[in-house]
Structure formats: structure tokens, C-alpha cells
Specification:
By secondary structure, the chain is an alpha/beta fold. It has two domains: 199 residues, Medium-chain alcohol dehydrogenases, catalytic domain (Quinone Oxidoreductase, Chain A, domain 1, Alpha-Beta Complex); 143 residues, NAD(P)-binding Rossmann-like Domain (Rossmann fold, 3-Layer(aba) Sandwich), CATH 3.40.50. Helices cover 27% and strands 25% of the residues. It contains twelve helices and 19 strands. Strands 3, 5, 6, 10, 11, 18 and 19 form a seven-stranded mixed sheet that branches. The protein has a six-stranded mixed sheet with strand order 8-7-2-1-4-9, with no helix packed on it. A six-stranded parallel sheet has the order 14-13-12-15-16-17, with helices on both faces. α5 runs parallel beside α6. Bound molecules: zinc ion (2 copies). The site of one zinc ion has 7 residues, from α2.
């Protein structure tokens, strides 16, 4: 079929929205009609050419939500008409890692996905007969996508597409880290470094878990105000004071029970470790640092009981946890409407990148008619 898609033709240049070809789903795959898609830093990072594993041309986009329109052979867990969220991190349920119950890093399709192919090593995307590669196994800056069944989370259709698409990436990363990865305890003190979508997700997750104090750290007063509106009880301007000293001060010198890092900066990761409480403080690293960068930790911090963990996608197992988060939205326990700052069309995708570079709002969401 023919469809419109935003193609990364070459690094460092705007995406070009154009007509491309999409082949029907093969065995174990589904055709999804996109209804909404968030514009994320990871898309921009790849488009800029800084990402060493990036490739072009390809169709970018990974924060999609839509409706299943056609099934390939053998698909059991999805039906035509199902509402789904696209997952760059699949959950096959059968590999060694999925069966362990200890990690969300599914081994099923990693190798091919990283190279821009679907699991059978081919692409469904093409242009004038030339294959066009997929991005993160998702390629959701497009009217339609074909994806493996194991990378689609079936969710309650009562939730809106423009909020469920946020759960494809950043929002789930922060939420899942606080709820399931760190398992924040009721009455605890939490510090969140960085108040973009991931950090705000951690604030919301910590609040859901009943944290008593949530200290948000950022350089932007606007972001800190947002953090307050999502549940932060105290805010710290990282450009005006030493956040570690301020957190120790605010906790009788002990530090926070849980800290979350959501900036991708290794110096901030170090601060998040230092601000964790002596004895049992748990620091969860969520930001993606530049290749080759190192996090330095004074061993004394670990010997005296602080723990450090990390989690891609916040440790969320996509097909298990994303539907649970959507259920919480439908029940009114979780409200992500405030995360959507701009609604744009597919043709305005480059404007979405500009808004992000200007740090204007939290998330631009492409909506499809
Ligand atoms: Zn993303
Ligand atoms: Zn697996």
C-alpha cells in the first residue's frame, strides 16, 4: 500500500514527508494504522547524526498508538480493531530473559531491530522499489506501520490515543521506574533529577506509590512548576545551588530513600548517587549517556549501603506494564493529559523537533486524521 511517512534522508537535515510503500504484514506481524505519535529526543538524536548506531534513509518515530488493521499469519494475541501502543522494547514472553521475570530486555529480535529490519531480516518499507529501513522496530512517523506482534501492547480502547502514545517511551520510563523497578515505598522521600517527560513520569509514579516528599531538581523554573503540578512537594534550581547539599540539608544529612536520574548527564548521575540515603538509598539511572562516558562513584557510598540500578524503558515489560498503566488512566488514577503540550500534523514533524530544541512544552504529539 501507499502511505505518507517522514523519511530521514540524510543526517543533520529536516525530515522529508513523502509517499512511500508499505508491504503487508508477514507471519507474526500486524499492520497498525497510527492515530497518534509523540516526537521524542531519541528521534532528533538519530536525525542529527550524533547517534553512532543511526542509519539513513529510514522512517523515524517510535512513540506510536493506533489500531490493528490486518494480521499476518499465526498472530494469536491480537485482533483487527485492537488499540495498541508500539514498543521499541518487545516482550516475547518466551526467551531466557522474558522467562526469568528479572529483566525487560527481551532477546527475541534485538539483532535485526538494531540494524533497521523486522525479525526476518527484511523491511516492509520501500520507495520506488528500493528498501527503506525501519527505526527502533517501530517507524511511527507514518500513517501506517508493520510491526512484530511481540512489540505491540494491546490496551483499553477507552483511553485516548494521544495519551496512550506517551506510554510508548518517556512517560512509561519514569512511571515504571518508580512503581515497579524501584518500588517506591509509602511515606518515603524521593529526589528526581531532571524534569523532562521521564523525570515527570518518575514524579507521578512516586506520588502514586504514596511517597511523602518528592524533591524535583532541574535548571528550568518552568519545568519545576510542572513538576509541582504533577506532585513534587519541593523543587530545587540546579543552576542556583548544589542540589546534593540541598537534599542532604533537607533530610537531616541522610539523603533521599530513592533518587531518579533523568538527564543523561553523567555528572548528574553522580549527584543522584550521592543524594541517595546512607544505609538503603536506591538510585535509579534512567538517562542515556553519550557513548564512552563514565560514571564515577566513590566506593564508600556503596559500602555504606547505597545501591545503584538502571533500567531501559524504566524496566517496564511493555506488553505487561503498558496495559496496566492505561488501565490506571481509564480508572482515573493516572492523568497524563498535561504531558501533551502541542498537537501537530505529520507534515509539521520538523516543527515538533524545533519545539523540543527550544524546550517549549513537554511533548508534541502528531495526530492522524
Ligand atoms: Zn522516545
Ligand atoms: Zn523475550
Amino acid at each position: 500500500m501507499k502511505m505518507r511517512a517522514a523519511v530521514l534522508e540524510s543526517f543533520g537535515n529536516p525530515l522529508v514527508v513523502q509517499q512511500v510503500e508499505l508491504a503487508p504484514p508477514r507471519a507474526g506481524e500486524a499492520l497498525v494504522r497510527l492515530k497518534a505519535c509523540g516526537v521524542c529526543h531519541t528521534d532528533l538524536y538519530t536525525a542529527s547524526g550524533v547517534d553512532p548506531s543511526g542509519y539513513a534513509p529510514c522512517v523515524l518515530g517510535h512513540e506510536g498508538a493506533g489500531v490493528v488493521e490486518e494480521l499476518g499469519e499465526g498472530v494469536q494475541s491480537l485482533q483487527v480493531g485492537d488499540h495498541v501502543v508500539t514498543l521499541f522494547s518487545p516482550e516475547c514472553g518466551e526467551c531466557l530473559h522474558c522467562r526469568s521475570g528479572k529483566t525487560n530486555i527481551c532477546l527475541a529480535i534485538r539483532a535485526q531491530q538494531g540494524k533497521g529490519y523486522l525479525p526476518d531480516g527484511t523491511t516492509r518499507l520501500s520507495r520506488n522499489g528500493e528498501p527503506l529501513r525501519h527505526f527502533m522496530g517501530t517507524s511511527t512517523f507514518a500513517e501506517y506501520t508493520v510491526m512484530p506482534e511481540i512489540a505491540l501492547a494491546k490496551v483499553d480502547p477507552a483511553a485516548s490515543f494521544e495519551t496512550t502514545c506517551l506510554l510508548a517511551c518517556g512517560a512509561t520510563t519514569g512511571l515504571a521506574a518508580a512503581i515497579w523497578k524501584a518500588e517506591v515505598e509509602q511515606g518515603s522521600t524521593v529526589a528526581v533529577f531532571g524534569c523532562g517527560m521521564v523525570g515527570l513520569g518518575a514524579v507521578v509514579g512516586a506520588k502514586l506509590r504514596g511517597a511523602e516528599r518528592i524533591i524535583a531538581v532541574d535548571r528550568s523554573p518552568g519545568r519545576l512548576e510542572l513538576a509541582r503540578s504533577f506532585g513534587a512537594t519541593e523543587v530545587l534550581r540546579a543552576d542556583e545551588l548544589d542540589p546534593v547539599a540541598a537534599i542532604l540539608d533537607a533530610t537531616a544529612g541522610f539523603g533521599a530513600d530513592y533518587t531518579f536520574e533523568a538527564t543523561g548527564r553523567v555528572d548528574v548521575m553522580g549527584q543522584a548517587v550521592e543524594a541517595a540515603r546512607m544505609g538503603w538509598g536506591l538510585c535509579t539511572i534512567l538517562g542515556v549517556a553519550g557513548r564512552g562516558e563514565k560514571l564515577e562513584i566513590v566506593p564508600r557510598l556503596l559500602i555504606t549501603g547505597r545501591r545503584v540500578q538502571g533500567g531501559s524503558f524504566g524496566g517496564a515489560r511493555g506488553r505487561t506494564h503498558v496495559p496496566q498503566l492505561v488501565d490506571m488512566m481509564v480508572r482515573g488514577e493516572l492523568d497524563l493529559d498535561g504531558f501533551v503540550s502541542h498537537r501537530i500534523s505529520l507534515d509539521q514533524v520538523n516543527h515538533g523537533f524545533e519545539l523540543m530544541e527550544a524546550k517549549d512544552g513537554i511533548r508534541s504529539v502528531i495526530t492522524f486524521p
